[in-house]
Structures are given as C-alpha cells and as structure tokens.
Amino acid sequence: MMVRDMNYRRENRASRTSLFDGLDGLEEGRLRDNDEALENLQDRVSFLKRVTGDIHEEVESHNRLLEKVGNKMDSARGIMSGTINRFKLVFEKKSNRRSCKLIVYFVLLFLIMYYLIRLLNYIKG
C-alpha cells in the first residue's frame, strides 16, 4: 500500500507540474503587463508633478504681482489723502475759498473762450 501511495504522489506531482507549467508563461505575461502599467502610472505621476510645479510657480508669480500692486495702491492712497488734507486746509478759510472760486471761474472762462474761438474757426474754414 505504501508503494502504491508513493507512486500516486509522484504521478500527482508530475501531472500537477505539467498542469501549472504553462502558468509560468501566463504569470510572466501578467508581470510584464503589471510592469507596463506601473511605468504608465509613473509617467502620469511625473507629468502631474511637473504640472503642479508649473501651477505653483504661476501662483507664486501672481502673488508677487499682487503684492506689488497692493504696495502701489497703498502709496497712491497716502498721496491722495495728503492732497485731500491740503484741500481741506485751503478751504477752511473764507479768503482761500474765495480765491479758489475766482481761479476756477477764470479757468472755466478760458476754456469757454477757447472752444468758442475753435468753433468760429471751424465755421469759417
């Protein structure tokens, strides 16, 4: 009985080996497919890494630009507030107000005369 058992095991092993012999090729094919998929995934990851790096550089560039614009707006705000304060000082006194009104009237009169003269020259010409 023992001899028969050993023969059965040998035959079983031999048939199992022949049965799974073809799977080594299949498994190699799967490994090649996995390697290709892994390379494809690595390519995609490196592409995404480059894209995110480019986006990061673009965001940094825009942040620097916005900071410059903000600084220029702050300086313009300071200049405007200084100018408004000077106008307030000028208009606080009545004599200054009268002289400013007189200057504005002369400027308006000059502009009106200038456009009337241009209009007359256009009509004549």
Short structural summary:
The protein is 98% helix and 0% strand.
Account of the 3D structure:
It contains two helices and no strands. The protein is an all-alpha fold and 125 residues long. It has helices at residues 2-92, 94-124. It starts with a helix and ends with a helix. InterPro entries: BET1_SNARE, T_SNARE_dom. Keywords: Coiled coil, Endoplasmic reticulum, ER-Golgi transport, Golgi apparatus, Membrane, Protein transport, Transmembrane, Transmembrane helix, Transport.
Question: Secondary-structure map with pairings?
Answer:
Elements: H1 2-92, H2 94-124
Tags for this entry?
single chain; 125 residues; mainly alpha; transport; golgi apparatus; protein transport; coiled coil; BET1_SNARE
Q: How far apart lie the N and C ends?
A: 135 Å
Name the poorly predicted regions.
none
Helix content: over 70%
Give the averaged pLDDT, no decimals: 80
Shape: elongated
Largest sheet properties: none
Radius of gyration over C-alpha positions, nearest whole angstrom? 46 Å
Fraction of residues in β-strands: under 5%
- Give me the strand/helix succession: HH
By DSSP (H or I, 4+ residues per run), the number of helices equals: 2
Class of secondary structure makeup: mainly alpha
Count of beta strands: 0
Domain T-SNARE coiled-coil homology: 28-90
Transmembrane segments: 102-123
Keywords: Coiled coil, Endoplasmic reticulum, ER-Golgi transport, Golgi apparatus, Membrane, Protein transport, Transmembrane, Transmembrane helix, Transport
Family: Belongs to the BET1 family.
